[in-house]
Prior knowledge:
368 residues, alpha/beta, Aspartate Aminotransferase, domain 1, Aspartate Aminotransferase, domain 2, 2 domains, three-stranded antiparallel beta sheet, binds ligand 0PR
Amino acid sequence: MEKDQILKKLRDLREKDPKFSDGRIISSVSTEPLDFAVEAFNIFSDTNALDVNIFPEVQKLEREIIDWFGTALKNPEIDGYVTTGGTEANIAALFVAKKLNPGRREILVPESAHYSIKRAAELMDLEIKWIKLDENFRADITDLESKISKDTLAVVATAGTSSLGVVDPIEEINSLCKDIFFHVDAAFGGFVLPFMENAPCIDFSLENIDSITIDPHKMGMNLIPAGAILFRDKSYLERIKVSPPYLSFSTSTISGSRSGGAIASVWATINYLGFDGYQKIVQDCLKNTEFLCNEIEKLDGVELVRKPDINVVGIRIKDMGPVSAELIKRGWDIMPDLESGSARVVVMPHVTETVIKNLVSDLKDILA
Ligand code: 0PR
């Protein structure tokens, strides 16, 4: 095939799948990346972050990203790396925990945790003790406390759960984790809560948090693949360092070759937006979240699952099966959980007031 033909074929195929800007994607934690981030990616698209020998500049960019997170999450001593996403970040955190305490194998995990935690446990043969949720869908602190034992390797909490955006009681859990590895999965909420007014604290100023997952490719406005794992200090990554004899460098990452493009794009995005830029994005998303909640409360047959902590809204719909089928027919990307009769709306930057008005209008129409 000729290059032109190949590119045309790809463009045609791409047209078949929706774009965030179409205003119909309401359930995804991804969004349209900044054009500028794509450009930055391209400049470093031929580099490999694994090989710091050939590409030392990529390593410097990555260090600056980690330092930026250190400021945002209140600890200049942190270390970490840019991962392919939240899944790899969560695996890396528990891998380090296991290396720190090889004799223990139980991890305490709230029922609402992302499935990557279960994956990590399976990979490392760890045993999960599931923590019940309280009436507000947060990890139940009493249940958690009762399950801590001398075999507890780690506790996991989520700042912005995948289905409802719930922030677990991180401060309270922190106070129970003096001698236990404490990992906070802020894959989604990490780019929301630190930029929000009156938000609960999820950062390293809580002295027992050992690691935090935070994903630039969610609310960080970056393109995929770009997650990040952060550790309280430089000693943690040392635990998973490998130094193959035939290479002139060592590495502490789960993945081998890594995209230097992803690192360049994260660096570009955080430097371009800065804390002010993220504050503005978060403010807008929260304003639209409130607008959506107010509209939902006015509708018969639809209700909020709970008052949202951040820009993820659970809505419960009467006759979810047929109603969601009709929404899907009308082009809405909605993921109904038929068991609970609810679905999530993630109010990402592309879910504007107009998109919400269109959604509410279709819902009204279908329910009538
Ligand atoms: N931790 C939390 C709290 C998450 O919500 C996710 C992703 C992860 C970790 C894992 O992140 P990666 O997918 O980057 O490895 N949660 C999304 C979800 O389950 C994944 C997703 C993304 C689903 C875009 C749909 C979609 O369109 O909701």
